[in-house]
Amino acid sequence: MSVRRRGRRPSLPAALCSAAVALALTLTGCSNDTLAQQWNEGSNKGYIGNDGTFTEYPVSDRGAAARFSGPLDTGGTFDSSSLLGKVSVINFWYAGCAPCRAEAPILAQLDADYGDRVEFLGINVRDQAPSALAFSGSFGIQYPSILDQDNGSAVVQAYAGIVPLNAVPTTLVLDREGRVAKRILGQIQDASVLRTLVDDVLAEGS
């Protein structure tokens, strides 16, 4: 799959990493493992710092839509088929991840700004429902998250063969067919970056 890269924003140093162990946050070295490898290994390495670089996938080169389902932190089950027909933003995160906390207000604000025009969904890769809900409440996040650790990391696995997931957080913008159109690797540095990427996909076919 060919991709078109558009650049990067000022960011945290690439060497900045942390890991959540039990209830404490400790520092660890950076790794090149993908998310899928990390959760297969059960290595609990935490987030891999990256600089918010974003990648665009041209319409003609987008792969198939990932298919997945899983339990939500708010209760019930989410199925990816409900994303079809709309532009979606999917954010991979967990509560002890410092970059995830830094970008959370941006995601909450854009979710409110777009309303019904864009579907937002979190993929929590580590936490149980109480921690996930507490995080969302702290930052005013209204959209739900799939609890992927309780789900056998099924969502991470579904995307691993489609687009590289090399950092936590990672944010994907999906087109109306559920295909990955844009990817931000690492912390979203500015709301305007994600807004521009989402608006690009909203404009497709209009």
What order do the helices and strands come in, and which of them pair?
Elements: E1 4-7, E2 19-21, E3 24-26, H1 35-41, E4 51-56, E5 69-71, E6 77-79, E7 87-93, H2 98-114, E8 118-124, H3 129-139, E9 145-147, H4 154-160, E10 170-174, E11 180-186, H5 191-203
Characterization of this structure:
- By secondary structure, the chain is α+β, with helices and mostly antiparallel strands.
- It has one domain: 3-Layer(aba) Sandwich (Glutaredoxin).
- Helix content is about 25%, strand content about 25%.
- It has five helices and eleven strands.
- The strands form three sheets. The protein has a seven-stranded mixed beta sheet with strand order 1-4-11-10-7-8-9, covered by helices on one side. It has a two-stranded antiparallel ribbon with strand order 2-3.
- The radius of gyration is 16 Å and the shape is globular.
- Residues about 1-35 and about 40-50 have low confidence and may be disordered.
N-end to C-end Cα span: 25 Å
CATH topology: Glutaredoxin
CATH superfamily: Glutaredoxin
Give the low-confidence spans. Answer: 1-36, 38-48
CATH architecture, by name, is: 3-Layer(aba) Sandwich
Number of strands: 11
H/E element order: EEEHEEEEHEHEHEEH
